[in-house]
Amino acid sequence: MSRFMSPMVRRRPTEPQPTPEAQPITAQPATTEPAAEQTIAAQPAEEELEPTEIRISEGGYKQIRDESLVLLSQGISHRLEHSPDGPFQIFVELDDQKRARFQIRLYHRENPPREVNAPLPLKASFQPIWVLLVPTVVTLIQFSGIIPGIESEGLSDADKVMNGQWWRCITALTLHGDSRHLGGNLLTGYLVLSMMSYRISLAKVVPFLAVSSALANFCVAATVQTDFRSLGFSTFVFAAIGALSVMEFRLMPKESHGLLRRFAPLCGAASLATFVGLGEHADILAHLYGFIAGLLCGFIPNKKSLRWGAPVVASDIFWIVGYYAIFVIGWAFAHQ
Prior knowledge:
With 336 residues, the chain is mainly alpha-helical. The chain has 15 helices and five strands. It has two domains: 59 residues, 2-Layer Sandwich (Alpha-Beta Plaits), CATH 3.30.70; 208 residues, Rhomboid-like (Rhomboid-like fold, Up-down Bundle), CATH 1.20.1540.10. The protein is elongated, with a radius of gyration of 35 Å.
């Protein structure tokens, strides 16, 4: 049985094995009750000794390590043992159990356990619907042909953007090449925004994601500058992926997982962005800039509100109006 010992431990006393003594062989007189004598003689050997130790605590490595340090600081001898069932255990002498239990209770009362980042629940959310309503409605208008030339007026043309038509960075987010393009962005966007909605109300985040997505489109135009056109809501989706990964990174506890473990959300998000963002007609630069801009947006919410999940409140309506206003302003400039 594997175990580790504290510096001040006392091993469990083992009963000394009786050593056989030489007995003179003598003739025994015949007796009429041999069975009774044998039973009486066997009774002392069958008596069990009372245990000298008692288990006072059981738990994981970190818990038992801290409790062992508490007992050591109070000069209480004890023994640590790793149970075959998994948890670690602390044993003390019977005479010390009351004092040991009191010190452990006192330690936990003065040092309550810290809250751990709970995993995100996987269930449907209605919050992403009002966010995805903008690209859905505008794209359906685009496909229906109700407004002629809407695509040419709204797509991001690098040459025109660099010549002052900055609004194309906003309007391009609401247009799509075909139904498959729209469906993929809506599905991925819904999944990412649903997970984000259980950390914080989307109304407090999506206006910043919309602005950062427009800035990402502008960075693409500034990088390429000429002969480049793009459209699609995927820049916003990748910004949301980056923001969610930073939120999870900020909530990852350092005590139980270590520093490297905290980077798992960022590495997972980067892998997902690489896997989803590469394709035959994918705007790789827009996905990259959108992801980077989203990383910055992940630092905007207060950490306390992320841990407990900021509820939807009445004042969120102003953020929602601000989100819609960004696209209304963009299309207002496009039609002037």
